[in-house]
From TrEMBL:
It is found in: Nucleus, Nucleolus. The keyword Magnesium does not apply. It holds the Pfam family WDR55. Nucleolar protein that acts as a modulator of rRNA synthesis. Plays a central role during organogenesis. PANTHER family: WD REPEAT-CONTAINING PROTEIN 55. The keyword rRNA processing applies. Residues 16-31, 385-400 have a biased composition (Acidic residues). This is WD repeat-containing protein 55. One of its GO terms (biological process) is rRNA processing. It comes from Eleutherodactylus coqui (Puerto Rican coqui).
């Protein structure tokens, strides 16, 4: 058997200066937490304002959003998916009354706003300075705005007056009053030739910008026409109404509707295309619905401002986010990046008591939605009263 191995004695500094020993005795692990990594969300956080927001607009090339409120103030924010990443860049209080519509120029250098005080403002986006003010642009309160190109833009007011402006001249070269009530929304075709307007009198107006003339009014619909969108690669026009119905027109067949679709919402107060087939609608019930056009289907819900009427919707430059503003004094962001890829079956599938499908994590029942349980119960109760969420008066064919 081998002899046991003896341990060599440890040599220590006679003066007690053994550094290695001291480190072993005194050194302890550092449990101090380092700086936390910023949390990245699916969407930017909500932006809360002191007054209800009427209008929102996304910048065409940067992560910037503008908002105008009922006090006439305009705010410009940079937005980010990083937690607490939204930042106010500047604000403007030049309008005396409610700011009702806003739009960035195509180069992103200027922000146009219109107001109940009958004025048009053009602001420098980088500094927030007022570049141009047209104080008495209309005789009635302004309600809608549409930028046509780098030189032309259109405005509509509460009395039904449409004006088309040329920035090079600084004046309106086209003034026409063919509506009996307020102009709620405007759209223009890809060729920048035909301007479409919707009105509270229940009609859609058609104006030829190239020839500077009024073309026609559509037949009257029940309820206000609140919004307009050009769909199906320019072949169809969709109009939302205060009665919760989407009216469809064939291009060059604007006199009478080709189809109508009851969304079963209390109203359609605003509408924005996601692609050639799908639009998102905002309603007085606070729900944002995704709707497929021809075949006509309510696909599901994108999000909600619980119990608060939605004023406007806007789509980000990359198509990833939808922003909404409502009477709850908040601007909310929704992820719509996957909605455009949804394909709807032509054949109707009739389903009773069907709850709206949640199309984002923040929609009904999503973990990020504080009101998820409440809104899910409300949605289920409402769906039980409806036999078919996707009722349509047509055969759902995509024909001209």
């Amino acid at each position: 058997m081998a002899a046991p191995m003896e341990t060599a004695p440890i040599c220590r500094d006679p003066d007690g200066n053994d550094e290695e020993s001291q480190q072993e005795e005194t050194e302890e692990p550092d449990d101090t937490p380092g700086p936390a990594e910023p949390q990245v969300r699916d969407t930017p956080m909500d932006i809360t304002f002191e007054a209800a927001v009427n209008t929102i607009a996304f910048h065409p090339s940067q992560d910037i959003l503008a908002a105008g409120d009922i006090d006439g103030d305009v705010f410009v924010y940079s937005y980010s998916c990083v937690e607490n990443g939204n930042k106010e860049l500047w604000s403007s209080g030049h309008h005396l009354k409610s700011c009702r519509d806003a739009a960035f120029s195509s180069d992103g250098q200027q922000l146009f706003t219109v107001s109940k005080d009958k004025s048009i403002h053009i602001l420098n986006v980088e500094e927030g300075k007022l570049v141009k003010r047209i104080t008495k642009a209309h005789d009635s309160a302004l309600n809608s705005l549409l930028l046509i190109d780098e030189n032309l833009f259109a405005t509509g007011d509460d009395s039904g007056m449409l004006k088309v402006w040329d920035l090079r001249r600084g004046t309106a070269f086209m003034e026409m009053k063919n509506h009996e009530e307020y102009i709620s929304s405007m759209a223009i075709d890809q060729n920048k030739k035909m301007l479409l307007t919707t009105s509270g009198d229940g009609t859609m107006g058609v104006f030829n910008i190239k020839r500077r003339r009024f073309e026609l009014l559509s037949e009257y619909q029940s309820g206000d026409l609140t919004s307009v969108a050009i769909m199906k690669r320019g072949k169809k026009v969709a109009c939302g109404s205060s009665e919760g119905t989407i009216y469809l027109f064939n291009w060059n067949g604007f006199g009478a509707t080709s189809d109508r679709f009851a969304v079963k919402a209390e109203s359609i107060d605003c509408m924005i295309p996601i692609n050639d087939n799908i639009v998102c609608t905002g309603s007085v019930d606070g729900i944002i619905r995704a709707v497929n056009i021809l075949p006509n289907r309510v696909i599901g819900t994108v999000g909600q401002h619980p119990g608060e009427p939605i004023e406007q919707l806007a789509k980000s430059r990359d198509g990833r986010f939808l922003a909404s503003c409502a009477h709850d004094q908040k601007v909310k962001f929704w992820d719509v990046s996957n909605i455009g890829s949804i394909i709807v079956d032509v054949y109707r599938k009739r389903k009773k008591n069907r709850q709206l499908q949640a199309l984002s994590k923040k929609a009904f029942g999503g973990a990020d939605d504080f009101f998820a349980d409440l809104k899910e119960d409300q949605a289920e109760a409402k769906e039980k009263e409806e036999e078919d969420e996707e009722e349509s008066d047509s055969d759902d064919s995509d024909s001209d």
